Structures are given as C-alpha cells and as structure tokens.
Amino acid sequence: MVIETNGKIDILSLTPDELTEQILFMGEKKFRAGQIYDWLHVKNVTSFDEMTSISAQLRSRLESLFCIKQLFICKRLESSIDNTVKYLYRLDDGNYIESVIMEYSYGNTVCVSTQVGCKMGCRFCASTIAGFKRNLLPSEILQQIYIAKRDSGRNITGVVLMGIGEPLDNYDNVICFLGQLSDPKGCNMSLRHVSLSTCGIVPRIYDLAELKLGLTLSISLHAPDDESRSAIMPINDRYHVDELMTACRSYFKKTGRRISFEYALINGHNDSYDDAKRLAELLGDFVCHVNIIPVNKIKERGYTSDRRSAQRFRGFLEELGINATVRRTLGADIEAACGQLRREAEASGKT
Ligand code: SAH
After folding, report:
1. What pLDDT does residue 335 have?
2. What is the pLDDT of residue 351?
3. Residue 199: helix, strand or coil by DSSP?
C-alpha cells in the first residue's frame, strides 16, 4: 500500500511489487528492491544506515524519499510467572499502543493492536474507555512484531489480532498487513498461525470469507441473545445475533475453517445454566470452539469473574455438547488486560 506522510513514502507498508516499482522509478536495478525488502522484513532493521549491502549514496537517496515507521518502547513489563512480555509503544505522532508476547509450548505469539483506541464501546473493555484516535497503518502493525522480536530475541511463530482496536474497522490496512506478514519474501508466516478477533462487523466477515486467507476467525460473542449482548456490546444494536450467526455459517461454508467464539464471563450477567443452554442452542449445529475468558476487572466497571465460575460454565457447555476451554491467564503479575497501559500513559501525559 502506497502511503505518503510528510512528503515521504512509508516503506514498510509497500508490498514487494510496490517497492520494486518505486526502486525502478528511482533508476535503480530491480535486485536492489529485493535486498531492501529483506533488510526491512527479514532482518528487521530500523534505519537505512543498517542496510550495509547498499551503497551509502543509495542509502541517503532512500532516506530522502522514504521513511521507516518507528515505534518507541515506553514501557516493557515481563512476567516472572510465565515470561509474558507486555510493551507500551509510542507512535511518531505521540499516540500509544500496546502489544504482548505470549509464550506457549509451540512458540511465541504476539498480540497486536490494530487501532489507536476503539470505537466499538464494549462495556467491559479498557481499550474503548480511552477513546478512539486513529487507524494503525500496515507498517505500524508489522513493527509491533518486528520490534518485539528484536527486543526479546525470541522467535515469533504466531500472531493474534486481539490487542487494542477492532481489526475489521480498519479493514484495508489489516488486509495489507496480513499480506506482508505472509509474504514469502518477508516474514513468511503461514496465516494458519494467525487469529483475527472481531466484535462482529457483519459485512466485513463476508468480505474476509471471500479472501480465503486460512486464518482463524474469532468472534467476540460474549452473550447468547440480543438482550444480554446489546447490554454489553453496542455493535449488537447494528448487527443482531442472528445476522452475526448467519455470517459465521457462511464464513465456515466458504473457508472450511472452524470458528472460535470468545465468551467473556461476567458474574451474574451471562454465567448461568440458562445462558449456557441458550448458547448451546445457538451454536448447536456449528463446527466451533468456545473460549471462555473470566472478565478482567476494569476500574470503571463493576464486572467481576473468576476461574472457578469459568470452569463451572465450561462444565455446563460440555454437558450440553459444546467444545469449550477456559483461556489460560497470562501475565497475571503485569497489567496484561489490553488497553490498560495506554490508558495510564494518556492519563499521566508521560512519554
Ligand atoms: N475488537 C476485537 C479485538 C480486540 S479485544 C474484538 O472485539 O474481538 C480481544 C478480546 O478481548 C475480545 O474478545 C474482547 O471482547 C476481549 N476483552 C476485552 N476486554 C476484556 C476484559 N476486560 N475481560 C475479558 N475479555 C476482554
């Protein structure tokens, strides 16, 4: 994607073909584009000066025409329990975003933000409380992975789009990011190792299905019917549960990929046997998986939950024939709930 800011082209958002076109336009040889793409997306350099296979003269020409989007690490919290690392990044316009590296037995997964803040207004979510500022560029989503990789020295084998923001509300940039992430000349990550989580922007679910990307779609369902879903998720007033489920069925039919449903458990709101029964009826004919998340406490809201009630709810679902797990708690000793660090940084105006 060709994006120009302050008279310079955002080089990390360019696909290999777009970069080649730019390099040829400069009167340079085609193979230079391959070298530059490799420096950026495989070696993950953050300045043109680090591209040592390229002449100083060309590096300075690149510098005058292109910019490499930077993210500055403002805060880095590492859990002593499970090696989860949380980053608070400052963007070049002074906004803040967050990413998390989660360690699993099969490798490290980075949870990335897709927007600065969020417009969706989910009642239990800290990302929304600090307000929406802007969409992230493909380069800014990629850099969250590249910088985390460089800083931690870890090998990154998976990505989840579950940080701050609603990925399907920043559709074009997210699709461009996924293309770059999976490009064999660059990061070369199989999209089988990528999950995209959405609160349910129905028309975009249909668009995404057409692309057959092979990623895992996670739907933030969180309630089994319109009344209780609308009470916690304003998006439900726009796209009702039945419309969302029709879109999910169509997604599965088109892509053959099992859908994962997220269910943030809130004591006294969506955790009864009756809720489980309604959920089982809703998902009965689906090839799916339910991921139960005990809701993270947010200061401004009175919602609570705990692992015991989550296990109880999982028991209800299993009894009703629905495949469910309780999400592992990661980084319990650091503030890992998304949006919390950004909110603190905004409140204190710190850099
Ligand atoms: N906007 C996207 C992705 C970002 S949030 C979406 O809605 O899916 C990633 C997941 O964390 C979503 O399922 C979201 O509903 C959930 N979440 C947000 N705040 C939470 C909280 N306080 N406790 C538990 N889950 C939360």
Report:
1. 67
2. 40
3. coil
Query: Which domain does 29 fall in, by range?
Result: 4-67
Weakly modelled stretches of the chain, pLDDT under 70:
299, 335-338, 349-351
Catalytic residue (one of 67, 98, 199, 335):
98
Look up residue 258 and give its two tokens: 């099992």
Q: Which structure tokens are listed for 347? A: 């409140």
Using CA positions, which residue lies closest to atom 18 of ligand 1? 125
Same domain, 117 and 187: yes
Q: What is the pLDDT of residue 336?
A: 57
Give yes or no: 98 in active site: yes
- Whether residue 22 is found in the same domain as residue 113: no
182: tokens are: 């999976």
Beta-sheet pairing, 216-220 with 194-198: parallel
How far is 339 from 6, CA to CA, in rounded Å?
29
For residue 162, the CA-to-ligand 1 centroid distance in Å is: 7
pLDDT of residue 338: 62
Cα-to-chain-centroid distance, residue 292: 18
**Which amino acid would we find at residue 252?**
F
pTM of the model: 0.95
Give the CATH number for residue 182.
3.20.20.70
Which residue among 67, 199, 288, 338 is the active-site one? 338
